[in-house]
Design goal:
This protein has 29 helices and 25 strands. The chain is an alpha+beta fold. Strands 10-25-24-23-11-20-22-21 form an eight-stranded mixed β-sheet, with helices on both faces. Strand 23, helix 21 and strand 24 form a beta-alpha-beta unit. Helix 10 packs parallel to helix 24. The longest helix is centred in the C-terminal third of the chain and has 38 residues. The protein is elongated.
Length: 798
Amino acid sequence: MTQDEKDAGTRGLTDAEVAERVAAGLTNANTDVKTKSVGQILAEHALTLFNGVNLALALLVLLTGQYRNMLFMCVVGANLVIGVTQEIRAKRMVDKLTILTQKEVTVIRASGERTLPPSELVVDDLMRLAHGDQVPADAVIVSGNVSMNESLLTGEAKPVSKGPGDELLSGSFVDAGSLVARVRCVGAEGYAARINAEAKYVKAVRSEIQTTLKAIIRLGTVVLVPLGLGLFLRSLLMDGGTLDDAILTSVAAVIGMIPQGLVLLTSSVLAIATFRLGRRMVLVQQAYCVETLARVDTLCLDKTGTITSGEMEVSSVAAAPGFSPGDVEAAMAAIAAANAQDANETALALLRHARDVGVTPGETARAVPFDSARKYSGCVTADGRALVMGAAAFVLGRDRAREADALAVAFDATERVLVVGQAAGFDEENALLGDVRLIGCVAIRDEIRATAPDTMRFFLEQGVELRVISGDDPRTVSAIAARAGVPLAERYVDAATLDTPEKLDAAVDEARVFGRVTPQQKRELVRALHRRGRTVAMTGDGVNDVLALREADCSVAMASGSAAARNVSEIVLADNDFSHMPEVVAEGRRSINNLQRSASLFLVKTVFTAVLALVCIVMPPYPFIPIQMSLLSTAIIGIPSFVLALEPNHDLVRGSFLANVLARSLPASAAIVAALLAELIVGRALGHSFDEISTVCTALVAFVGIALIWRISQPLTPLRAALLVVVIGIVALGCTVFGSFFEIVSFDASMGVVIVAAGLLAVAAFNLLYRRSLATYENSERFSRLVRLVEGKHDRDR
């Protein structure tokens, strides 16, 4: 323990005192928002209605001993594995980032100094912190004068000077100087932990695709129970079928009503998107957020770490009479180089500027480190010159500060100005001796990310409205936003004046830049945008952003920010490069547009099997068994959908996902139902057996399915043409070479006539209905009512 610490009346805790506090629970554990556990991830993916229904059906098939008819469970298993694997992978990478950014803290105890993990701190512990250290718990400074960076807590980038008796907030950083502080609050009582606690609620996934899938599965589940039971009873009691036959027939119908492959396809496409983004250092913690970001129409940006790089830069230099800008740059470079071991962001900016302009710092005999009480740093050069740099009022004195103001008149009002001067010398306590002669002034400002203007331009071209929300001074934020290319950046507001919910709500319509925003106000701004029907994305890196990140439809955090910000966000930029955002949007567009095209194939089966089941209760038999549905699902739906879903597609996302899908799938479903109904009537008249009816119906579904693939593959490319050949080949092989496996019998003349005649009529009907559907569905009130019905919405909810 140093003499200063003893003089300050400080002493470290004894082991007994530490044990007492640990026993009382006064430790610094559980201060952050955690990622979901592996168990939670498994439960979320396994305990779903989709999995429950399929498991129940598999158990029924298991009772029959027809194990090959349980092939549909492969889809369920694959979907579960893909979803769980990608989310656990993202969790582990984010947890790894948290571990890498943690740093042990030096603690002064009665038995001596030691380093401990932040979680082992207790109340009244003494911490020794220096430049670059993060404050692990709320504390009060006992000794030392420092400059603190509280940007992760408040968004205010300007360093704050603090000394003995001042409070330190957990999450802030020591920008310059060193200190000893006594821990005041630990665990959930700390400032950062209190904000994080408000973010520890389950955030609902906001995804139109997921909502559509859930609605279809929910509706299918409601419909399949009475239809499946009706088919089962009809087959067992009225048609004289065996129990096994009744189960297989009912399960075949029910499986068709559940879009199993669509669920798997969606998981696969989004998993591939997250893998591609991961290779670009973009970690996706929630797969559906890729889709959400592609639909975003409002992007809320945090200034620090998003628009700015987190570093400072020299914007301009002004020389006093009798000196040149080179003299100013040489002096500031000498001071910064002399104190390079304790260089903060300002000193690093000075050194970079000196290097860029070709100034080489000279040799120094003495360094005068920055002290927040003095507000300056300095050095003594090898030739005896005493140079000083800092705030004008402390370097020149308050009476002469206007000399610097005259030089800085051309500087931007939002820039931080340092004066550079020459003094007679420094005493033993590093205090200035004599008057200081002014050499010049240096303007320092936040460095804009080089890629920020291009990224802003991209979003503006896509019709996305930009808002900047920061805890910094609104004038500073406005100036930075304007430099980055944010339109209407001059329309700023000081959130400190928005002292009522009504004022804050009104400001959302008028302002584009919000300064001095509290964490709670950031969240309320996002909520206000939601009330206006906006889909909101939010970027941030600090504890002050956590609440808004939780509230946004899609949240993006920087890896260099707080662990809480990373853990609550759907997307983490591992290399802190905001320019990756267009790549995320592009992946989202590819996923959504291709899924819309492929999903129409799956919905065809869902719709026609449900209608067919209803028809067959009245006019049996139901013409399919599960293994035949597996052939159709693989050839007509599975393979084409996966190929089409992985093609490049960066078109703008337009319209409702469900409406776009139904407009393409309903014509095919109607044509298939008509063709199958014809076979059920004609086949009975011609004396076709169940196996013959089943074979003809399988061929008719393939006919219309191939026609739909042809339609959605336009314009035809070599890949899509090859896909059509493969699909036709699989169907042909399944109906001939592997006919016995799929329980398809040989074709006779009457079966061939029905297949050709009914097939050609069905394809012609499909083409007519398809053209009419695409031309009218966007303006059709009847179609809109159908979409709302499937989504589970009543007209009054509009």
